[in-house]
Amino acid sequence: MMLIPCPYCGPRNQIEFTYGGDATLRRPAPDAPESAWVDYVYLRDNPCGPHDELWYHGAGCRSWFKVRRDTRTHQILESATIDPPQPADP
Amino acid sequence: MTQSWRLPEGGAIDRSRPLAFDYDGTRYEGYAGDTLASALLANGVHLVARSFKYHRPRGIHSAGAEEPNALVQLARAARTEPNTRATVQELYDGIVAGSQNCWPSVRFDAGAIADAMSPILPAGFYYKTFMWPPTPKWWLKYERAIRRAAGMGRAPGVPDPDHYEHQYAHCDVLVIGGGPAGLAAARAAANAGARVIVCQQSPHFGGHLFGIDVGSIDDRPAADWVDGTIAELTERADVTLLSRTTAFGYYDDNLVGAIERLTDHLPSPPAHLPRQRMWMIRAKAVVLASGAIERGIAYANNDLPGTLLAGAALTYVKRYGVRLGTQAVVFANNDGAYGAALGLHEAGVRISAIVDVRQESQLGGALPARARATGLVLLPASVIARARGRLRVSSVDVVPRAGGAAKSFDCDVTAVSGGYSPAVHLFSQARGSLKYDPMTASFFPDASPWPIIPAGAVNGHFSLAEAIADGEAAGAAAVERAGLHITGSTPAPPTRRANPVAVEPFWAVASHHRRAKSFVDLQNDVTVADIALATREGYQAAEHLKRYTTLGMGTDQGKTSNVIGLALLGEQLGLSIPEVGTTTFRPPYTPVTLGAFPGHAQGPHVEPTRYTGMHAWHEEHGARLVNAGLWKRPHSYPRPGESEDAAANREAHNVRENVGIVDVSTLGKIELQGRDVPALLDRIYINRWDTLQIGRCRYGVMLREDGIVRDDGTTSRLDATHYLMTTTTANAVSIMQHIDRLLQIDWPELDVYATSVTEQWAAAALSGPKARKVLAQLVDIDVSNEAFPFLAVAACRARIANGDISARVFRISYSGELAYEIHVPSSQGRVVWEAVLDAGQAFGIMPYGTEAMNTLRVEKGHVVIGSEIDGRTTAADIGMEKLVNPTKWCIGKPLLTRPALNAPDRWQLVGLTAQRGAPMPRGAKLVADPDRATPNPTLGHVTSWCFSPNLDAWIALALLSGGRSRYGETLWAVSPLADAKVRVKVGPSCFIDPSGERLRG
Amino acid sequence: MKRYSIFSLVGNALSGHQNWPLAWRNPSPKKQYDVVIIGGGGHGLATAYYLAKEHGLRNVAVLEKGWLGGGNTGRNTTIVRSNYHLDPNAHFYDLSLKLWERLSQALNFNVMYSARGVLNLVHTPAEIDAAMRRGNAMRLNGIDAQFLSREEIATRIPNLDCSPNARFPIVGGLLQPRGGTVRHDAVAWGYARAADSLGVDIIQRCEVTGIRIERKAVSGVQTTLGDIGTSKIGIAVAGHSSQVAAMAGVKLPIESHVLQAMVSEPVKPVLDTVVTSGAVHFYISQSDKGELVMGGDLDFYNSYAQRGNLPMIENVVSGCLALFPSFGRLRLMRTWGGIMDMTMDGSPIIGKLPVSGLYMTGGWCYGGFKATPASGYVHAWTIARDEPHPLNAAFTLERFGEGRTIDEKGAGPYPWAH
User: Fold this and answer.
1) Closest Cα of chain B to A34: distance in Å?
2) Average pLDDT value for residue range B949-958
3) Which of B12, B172, C9, C227 lies 20 to 30 Å from B108 when distance is taken between CA atoms?
4) B147 in contact with chain C, both atoms CB, cutoff 8 A
5) pLDDT in tens, B597-613
């Protein structure tokens, strides 16, 4: 069972968390073309190696945060709070 | 019979405590401290089992968890247990056990016909036959016979009477293995101030030292050192010693699963004690002192009862004081086995010969020298070509390796040692790589990215002094890896000696007897010939070999056989063992009782159960309860003699005629506060929210990112910046997460705070033409239609039996009648519920359950998650396209333009009325022609259905291809499962009061 | 190909089994093939077999980076069924079941298709409706299905806890009698042997490291054994589809997740039917050897590690004991993990990719093993004719952009939810 370092609470057992998927996705601008939305909703890099992903500490502080984790080994390389939002793609 | 093979003295058994037991119907006696295996051997019982495939007679082969043969059925009423290893089952008074996989008895087993037929049953034979007659039915017949022959013990037929518990633990250093290396590591770590846990799989610490006098430490007997170290560790508060505890799996981030057996050795387990405790130990560093497992050598008939691993033979003699037989042959490729020869000799077992594969010149070690000095016969450069005997070995044929005539040696015990395989299982599970040492023919731990440090025999240190030194060094290293400060210098681990027990790799004796089998895997009856056959046929990857022959797939998971199999594969292919590769060491290390995994999460606690504030009232009033996710909800309230369906119809009818009340506490409730709540709502609902006034509520629909409907519910504006959102019961948790995610990741600039209050508020819906009259008696606000119109919301005081409490009232309607939702703190749910019923008594109020609620909403054409909103429907599909606000963006909207989501043949929501009063079949599909041959194209399906007591007809909601253009058409609702078909007429989905006069009135 | 039969077994017994031929050759790769299949699991081998058998394409190579059947073909719970609600799934998986029914004979290799029935338990009135809706859809599609009452289930499976007081009381179940199990390893071996005998080169320990593309069409692959030219490439590497497709610059709607499975120690027959329950997320069957084979949910995070964690094992066993309380004293013998291609609608992707000459079969989510024959069949058809077979026409990569997702569960574009 992974030990996930919540940036607010410290390391906690994986069972306290919910997985949120790829953290690199950025929601397109409201008026972006349909194809941009299709890519955003459906396509994934799905890397075999370090993966930036979101986790939710549902049984703890209820925070979403980012984890960089190696999908080949489950080794967690780092975790961080959510950065200020980036502007959507033009 | 009384222990005629027990030595007059010696052993770590308690001779003052004789224990009676029963094996295969015969009564025997053993002593406290025995295992079932040692007690059987003390009574001269070697034949205990029949093998898996050929039903060959088998005896006790090892003295530990690696046992391949001696699997027995514990007969213990409800506590019966198959496949118990007799070598680890501690003897207790009255134990009843027996052999398995044999009939009528272990001595005369009809299944042994398989052995006679074995020439046509080589590895993988079943892939080549049983294909005729060529129909699946015939394979089922063959399979039935095969399945009956296979399997081993019998599963219990009744629920397990025992219970199990979980224990989470944290420590600096976890030491796996309580032998000399493990104890030395634990002491070193504890001395450095680490919190230490030590797991030892057998009942006693000391590993192979326990009960066996092997050497001395600091001029004291080794056992004294063990006792002293244990005493020292026991005194420390920060050291936990767990005996009878097997570390079975190494999981991510240094979590080790370990299973502690608390009552398996007790004649009558006390009810308060869990049978087993599953430890989940999160360690900062782990010392793996798991030892090494002896392996055998394959030769013809090396499976005859009386054939043991040499180390096991020594263990039985020394630890248990069992004289294994009258005369023994020892067969070895290393010095270690000579200890067994000497031990057997000292116990009065005549040593017919020590057969050693090594040349004379290699026998210069201390132990061979002692054997020679004792006068034992050594036959260097020789092998056992074949063993003879029927139910027990009676002699062996020995031939020189260089060739020559066989010479027969009588024996009733054969002690074999083919070297030692380090128990690297957990190291490998810790993503550790292994290194093959050709000299000792063993895989040793190499490197792991995790802090796991091997020590002792697993690390190649077989001598006592080295093991202890290695343990001390590993303990100190573990402390450092755990991040603790070490005072003084860390001791250096001893240098691994090149070949500590002088092994010469040797795996199998070439057989000249075609029908005599040389076994590699005793449990699964895999022979040397099977491995050659697999290789010949191309199953040459290690995993192919394993899967084709079933090598190492038994309950022992190949602990004594895998390396031999790989070596033989390599020999066949002309490759070295590392080139052949290893198979994966999958958890668990030894089999773990299923019941221990869920611990107490069993029976009623398999999942948590959620109850509403009114639950006790429902139970007391005869509600029939059904699961709704984890919740328990009333389905209906049948009166004595009334069926559930009749009750639901009565309840539904009463809502339309008078008034009813239903518990809707399970709805998800989310409080939203902040200036930007309308902005959030605008982005997550398809409709518009910035226009919602204080004291009003609105229905909303949420989409997924792909434009498909996700959830629906109402949101109320309680105050300027204070809102309450309700979600469906099913999606309460996921919508809360969704909102948290949006607010924290996507739109942190929004000034909105969200919190779930599902548990905090009980809710009841009061519905029916007389609802207002009931409510008026209950609350302190004006509930007239003018003052409190449809979609109004207000906070108020609600009168209860002795006073009043604060409540919220919402004028919303799911039933289509004049209706109100009343929300009160959960703790007040029941009193308010009762207060409503009291107030409504004069108006004919009845409680109603989910079934009547369903009838009412079907009549009204209201959709529900899971039925109409099935994860594939768009808002337009369910007739809510007008709700999609064209002037704003919301989640899911951009993808609504995709062509297939706007096709004219989309399945759309319609209402169906069964013709001529026929009942609507369950789960019906809609077709144009019910009698058409399959595949009969489906036009749609019924999503919800009911008998409408108010329309006196069977009606349904359905999703129908191009449905809204089919109003007035007649189709068939069919259920081939129920052999039912009904003509249905298509119409709008709302059957009652389409203009909404009732709910607005 | 020397045929296997009871007679060949007896004949070879006389010669001590010394004369069995190799089940497949170990050829070195040629410079050029008409078709290269990447992935030597069941799907890749089946594709090669049907290319040779049905389409006369015999200059075909199957490239496998490890050993045949070493991916999910050897890491599943061996269940086969076609009990689907949506038409594209139902038709496709029923082709598979029809192929399973005759596969032992077609391949002359006993894959042990055991039509012992697959029973989906239902626990609430709403689940009865959903199960019957699915069963009726199956029946209209010509697929066998029966709805069993609680009493019928209790008689058929005596170990099952059918008491109304159970935490998840059983109120009925949907049975597909033709569903069952197949001996998983035998599928890879049987297809390999049959394909090899038709001239297909099966090359193990040959990892594809790149896909060569010239003028928007594939021209070959780079491998650890050198470059191999070809104008058609079929990808059959479920679990790693994203990686291989990326070699051709194609991004897929797939995430890789680990799914665990486990077996108990073997015991005498106690369970003759495959039993599943959606409510407790659990499925179980008993192998011919006697082991109880169990599985449940994903571990719920992206993974290529082929190793799972304890919480999901707890969940699976907890589900097991909720349904079968008498199994509590049996022991768990072995656990393992496989990597699933989880797609955004829970259905596979079988067909052409947006590079000429590039095809794939993958995105199987939990369901790949049972699809093996049909997947190979329609994949081969698509490769041979450069157009989909009617039965995989719906499983395109483009369906996501077009809004034609095939979402059996209705779980939406959240791959771990399927």
Assistant:
1) 6
2) 95
3) C9
4) yes
5) 999 999 899 999 999 99
Residues of A in contact with B744 (CB under 8 A): 63-64, 82
Interface residue ranges in chain C relative to chain A, Cβ cutoff 8 Å: 240, 242-243, 251-256, 300-305, 307, 309-311, 344, 400-401, 413-416
Q: Are B253 and A2 within 8 A, CB to CB?
A: yes
How much of chain A exceeds pLDDT 70, in percent? 92
Give me the domains of chain B, ranges plus CATH numbers: 14-118 (3.10.20.440), 166-206+238-291+422-481 (3.50.50.60), 296-418 (3.50.50.60), 507-599 (1.10.10), 616-666+760-856 (3.30.1360.120), 668-756 (3.30.70.1400), 903-1000 (2.40.30.110)
Residues of C in contact with B152 (CB under 8 A): 265-268, 290
**Is residue B751 pLDDT above 80, yes or no?**
yes
**For testing the chain C interface, which of A41, A46, A68 should be mutated: the one with the most C CBs within 10 Å?**
A46
Instruction: Give the position of tokens 């709403």.
Output: C126
Q: Is the pLDDT of residue B1 over 60?
A: no
CB–CB of B198/B186 below 8 Å? yes
For residue B247, the SS3 value is strand
- Is the pLDDT score of B45 beyond 90? yes
B652 membership: H or E segment, kind and range? helix B644-657
Cα torsion A74, A78, A83, A88: sign: negative
Instruction: Tokens for B564, please give them.
Output: 């031999």
- For chain A, the domain total comes to 1
CATH code where residue A69 lies:
3.30.2270.10
* Rg, chain A, Cα only: 14
How do residues B555-584 score in pLDDT, each as one tens digit? 999 999 999 999 999 999 999 998 998 777
- Pairwise CB contact (< 8 Å): A43 & C251: yes
- Give the C-alpha separation, B895 to B689, whole Å: 21
Which chain C residues touch B599 with a CB distance below 8 Å?
314
Q: Show residues of chain B in contact with C331, CB under 8 Å.
A: 83, 555, 591-594
Nearest 5°: phi and psi at B809? -120, 135
Nearest CA of chain C to the CA of B113: how many Å? 16
The mean per-residue pLDDT over the stretch B810-827 comes to 97
CA distance B334 to B380: 11
Residue B374 is encoded by which pair of tokens?
């004792």
Let me know if residue A77 belongs to a domain: yes
Mean pLDDT for chain B overall: 95
Flag if B253 and A37 touch (Cβ within 8 Å): no
State whether A19 and C416 contact (CB < 8 Å).
yes
At C236-260, the pLDDT tens digits run 999 999 999 999 999 999 999 999 9
Residues B371-401: tens digit of each pLDDT = 999 999 999 999 999 999 999 999 999 999 9
Q: Do A15 and C253 touch (CB under 8 A)?
A: no
Confidence at residue B485, expressed as pLDDT on a 0 to 100 scale: 79
Question: Does A71 lie at the interface with C, CB-CB under 8 angstroms?
Answer: yes
Q: Give the predicted TM-score (pTM) of the model.
A: 0.97
Under DSSP, the state recorded for B433 is -
Two structure tokens written together for C197: 């005998």
Nearest CA-CA partner of A68 in A82, A89, A54, A58: A54
Which of helix, strand or coil describes residue C175? Answer: strand
pLDDT digits (tens, 9 = 90+) for C101-158: 999 999 999 999 999 999 999 999 999 999 999 999 999 999 999 999 999 999 999 9
Express each pLDDT in B282-296 by its tens digit.
999 999 999 999 999
Instruction: Give the range of the structural domain holding residue A58, as residue numbers without chain letter.
Output: 3-26+34-81
Q: Which residues are bridge partners to C229 per DSSP?
A: C32, C220
Question: Other C-beta atoms within 10 Å of B545: how many?
Answer: 26
Beta strand pairing call for B953-961 and B907-914? antiparallel
Residue pair A16/A27 in contact by the 8 Å Cβ criterion: no
Q: Reduced to 3 states, what is the DSSP secondary structure of residue B219? A: coil
